[in-house]
Structure formats: C-alpha cells, structure tokens
Amino acid sequence: MLRKDFIIQNKVGLHARPAAILAQTANKFKSSIFVEKDGRKVSAKGIIGVLSLGVEMGSALSFEIEGEDEEEAMKTVSELIAGRFGDEE
Q1: In the chain, where are the structural domains located?
Q2: 2-86 belongs to which CATH class?
Q3: pTM
C-alpha cells in the first residue's frame, strides 16, 4: 500500500471538471484508490464522493492506493495534481 499527502493548488480546488478527471483517471487502474480530507475517506473512482469532500485551494489531501498497479497509479495521480488538472499553467 502506498500513501502520499498533497496540497491542492488549483485556484478553484476540485470542482466538477478536475473531480471528473480524477475519477476517470482512477478508474483506469485496478488498484483501490482512496482520497482523504479532514478524516473523511472516499473512493477516488467516484466523482460524487470526490465532490463531497469540498476540496478548495490549499486543502490537504491524502491518497491511499493499494493493488497490483499501485506504483503506476500513484505516479499518475501525483502528476495530475502537480499539473493542477490542466486548469492553469
């Protein structure tokens, strides 16, 4: 199992478009992918769960990934967050 913490830098946090991108990306992997904020943990594979976290700019998130492709999944999630979901340069 891999676990990594991130600070969301998108100006609008994880609104509908970046939440959808995260869910679509997570669903490409066989591993279980969970995201946690303020003690609430949801599957990153469901857009409703991700939106329910109310992630704003500066929010701290923890990702927990477990499964056969966990390393590739964590690398992809890390790149997605570092790239701000393509929202801004």
Answers
A1: 2-86
A2: alpha beta
A3: 0.93
